Amino acid sequence: MDRLSKIILAGILILAFGVRFFGIAKSPPSLNWDEAALGYNAYSILKTGRDEFGKKLPLSLRSFDDYKPAVYSYVAVPFIKAFGLNEISVRLPSVIAGTVIVLLAYLFAKEFFKKEQAALISSFLVAAEPWSVHFSRVAFESNLALMFFLTGIYLFLKSRKYILPGFFLILSALTYHSEKILVFPLAVLSFIFDPGSLSRFASSSIFSHYPASLDLIKALITRYFSYFSPVNLFVRGTPEPTQHIPNFGMFYPLEFLLLVVGLYFLIQNFRKHKILFFLLVVSPVPAIATWNWFYPARVLPLFFFLSLIIAYGLYRILNKYTAVPVLVILISGVLNLLTSLYFFLPYQERGNWQYGMREMAQALTKYQDSHQRVVIETKTAQPYIFLLFYTQYDPQKYQEYSKDILSPRNSFNFDKYEFRDIYWDKDKDLKNTLFIGPESSLPVTPVYEVKDFEGNVLYRVAETK
Amino acid sequence: MLTTPPVELSEVLLLESLGIHVGPLILRLSGIVLLLLNSYLFSRLFKKWPLPFFIFLINPWTVYLHTFFTFQCTFLTGILILTIKNKKLLFLLLTLAVFVYLQKNISENFLFVSKITPANLATEINERQKIDFLATNKTFILPAVVRKITYNKPVLAFDKILKHFVSFFDFEQTASPSESYAITRLSGLSPKGNFPLLFIWEIPLIIFGIAISLKMEGKKWLVLFMISLLPIFVAEKKLFPQTAFLIIPFLLYWETVAIEKLLTVKKIRLVLVVLALFAAFEVFGYHRDFYTRPMKYKNSESYFYRQIADWVAKNRDKNVVVTTLFGPTDKMIGYYLGEIPANVSFQNFDLIKEATGENMYYIGLPGQFVKKGKDLEKKEKDESRTPIIEKINGEDELIFEYGESLWIGYQK
């Protein structure tokens, strides 16, 4: 690696970190409930060594009875210690993982293609591609798991040893469910150590939806191909509202042509690149075992390996004639992505992110002290976690309430907080109560109105004496 | 059974514009003859004919096209002949002719490339910049230079065309449109009227076939394939089955190449037998549904045209008023019956507001008999002033809040 390459790579890494970190508290416009849960559990572990339900140093978090892998929360602990419990601390592990993945793209491409230029192109593309940018700006366990998984695979390819690569692969399997299936024997191990960790699979598995074997085979095949469907990858993206940047697929449309070129040249030398093809083909396997159709979070390794092939395609066609048009289209695409990311997403898509919960919690903090009871009506699922997160509720105190919560839980109430619909005709007779809910549920002069940045009323705060 | 799938409205309009009358049965038989001819021509691309012949014959896309777009399939015949004879220039000219044909015959609402005009692009760009501005609560706007690079007409036009091209490679629309729609609304298509164009197992075979063909025969087929894709730019993505049909021979060519290659590997013959059985189930299931359950894949309107025509044919002594609310019923009934009977008139009636004639039969949507809304089927007895004597069940609400079925009412 010469000096120029080092400078270029450093520049790409700085760019990657910058794009991932800039405005991270504002876009996406709010934490979603999974991020809030990971953050609050990290806070709880930091303060008490236990998760929100009082389980000591857990491998998986019960959370919303979905038993999230706990590694992300552990990784977030030092950031929360350093910067406090906020959006930046929760998302920072993902930002850093995303930046490391850019470096890994360079290393993998160097390993597979043995060309410095192709390796640099790979790292640049991964730094700027929609899938990588988006998953690195949100606290997705899958992004952290991808970093561990790729590190493990890379170390194995380089050293052909098992201990250190094995450590990273185990870590990846403990970080996200998909990697458990990719590193299959580890799924068995994790089940032995922590049976709850696989309960999520039982609920989302495709096998319970297709009792007939022929239908099941067809369902598996169709799902498998959906992950290679160019329209999903390059144009349409996913219907999952929090897993894409609006107006973009997982890649730029132009990259489809580069993928075809890359595949064309790599197939000519199939034997030489069989490891890359193997990794590509097995990557969607964890995702097809679940009910969802095109679910990007479960196939990040696939996107990574596709990026390498795309980069190889670009490397093969890049010459003095193609460089300018390709660069113009790519730069225009990247700028478009950034405007989508920083303007369009927080504005147009705020409904898909639990926008308003932070603002509501702030209002609550201001008015709650003088009331014995607080009734909250919100259409957001799992509302309690936002309250815990944004009010930085003492974890030790919450564990006193949570230890008795049955599974599945039928109520989110704790302390003086009640989460339910407000019936004002009846509820107005309650004494010394603070109400927070939509305008339609509180037809009364409010003490405060929670508004969004355009001045639209999100919640009303009303009280009874 | 052959005439169970309803005739496509566009086919009837085309016949009318040509001044030809071909009845539904003759039209279907012509389609089948053409399908057999094209299957034969396709098999000529190979040394041994049976395998390619059957692959072409049973393919969902070819069956669909030859059933609903019979005339268009003559272009496919031309393309096959020119491919066999290796006439590349004529091939290109015929593709362009198809482009022009489709441009003229597809409804303006669904056209694609002709809508990419500077004015439309400018509107879109302005709209997008407006959103960016509103997103900052009108406090910040990107510098003009950045906006010029980010949002400009040539790049937007290129982006649209490229996206349209990539959208064609859609495995959901190709192999499992209904299922993917049911689960995720992913396909972005309406739930009805979407045909699988290929069986799911054909996709890996085609990809494998492309790889073999590239290695053994070079880029010859790929070039022809790319040329034959030109007509997809005529119309929106949802009309791909109609606009991209010239590529069928190439896709099936690669599939056949792949199967022939696999058949030479003795070690996997048992696997192939199992897969062939799986495939046979798929093929049988598809053709059974296609010829016996048209409501599964067609919108109710084409089914209703046929049902109204049958009812009118059986009741030639009655005065009938047929709705025109959901489509050109006059044209379709005229087509099915050869002419419009004298006892039938067509109008967009509203029996809640209008006075009914005496001794008249009315055929229309429930919302034309009772006040429109939800669950109209239950309101028949209480609200309809005109007694309902018969109902034809449908599966889609063709007009919002007008109900799913077709009612026949009689006013004494």
TrEMBL record, chain A:
A single GO molecular function term of this UniProt record:
pentosyltransferase activity
Q: What InterPro entries does the annotation carry?
A: ArnT-like_N (IPR003342), LipidA_mod_glycosyltrf_83 (IPR050297)
Q: Which residues form the ArnT-like N-terminal domain?
A: 14-160
User: Which stretches are transmembrane?
Assistant: 7-25, 88-109, 169-193, 250-267, 274-294, 300-318, 325-345
GO BP annotations listed: lipopolysaccharide biosynthetic process; protein O-linked glycosylation; response to iron(III) ion
Report the Pfam families cross-referenced here: PMT (PF02366)
Q: Which domain of life is it from?
A: Bacteria
Q: Name one GO cellular component term.
A: plasma membrane
Q: What does the UniProt entry say about where the protein is found?
A: Cell membrane
Question: How does the protein associate with the membrane?
Answer: Multi-pass membrane protein
Q: Report which residue ranges the record marks as coiled coil.
A: none
User: What are the UniProt keywords, alphabetically?
Assistant: Cell membrane, Glycosyltransferase, Membrane, Transferase, Transmembrane, Transmembrane helix
Cited PANTHER family: MANNOSYLTRANSFERASE YKCB-RELATED (PTHR33908), UNDECAPRENYL PHOSPHATE-ALPHA-4-AMINO-4-DEOXY-L-ARABINOSE ARABINOSYL TRANSFERASE (PTHR33908:SF3)
Name of the protein in its database record: ArnT-like N-terminal domain-containing protein
Give the species this sequence originates from: Candidatus Woesebacteria bacterium GW2011_GWB1_45_5
UniProtKB/TrEMBL annotation, chain B:
TM segments?
25-43, 63-82, 195-214, 221-248, 268-286
For this UniProt record, give its keywords in alphabetical order, as a comma-separated list.
Answer: Membrane, Transmembrane, Transmembrane helix
Superkingdom of origin organism:
Bacteria
The protein's name: Uncharacterized protein
